[in-house]
Amino acid sequence: MEDINARFGVDIATSQPADVAAMYGLFLEWSIPKGDAPLTGQEPDDIRAFKEALGISDEEAAPVHLDVGRRFVRSSFESGSREATAVEKKVRRRAVSPQRIVATRNAQASVTGV
Fold first, then answer.
1. Residue 26 pLDDT > 70
2. For residue 50, which of 70, 72, 26 has the smallest C-alpha distance?
3. 10 domain residue, yes or no
């Protein structure tokens, strides 16, 4: 993003926030394992790196995490099956959990100066 911003003289994160949020949301959905697949532990680092590459803050990322969670809820309602609903609840928790980890790590880093 920095290269694009420098090349074209525009800050995409501030000039196109909805598009940046949409890209971040797609990445978030992609990075969370589907179904019963376990989290690998790499997700928070991947999400943080992508968020930083896009130039968005935790405050700007939080609504995207909630929106992704809502999409998972909506899809579980559409599935109609109890088993699918249970799986979707797990996925929804995964959508919010990495954001909490990223925010916690960032807060710890700002306190410790790391």
1. yes
2. 26
3. no
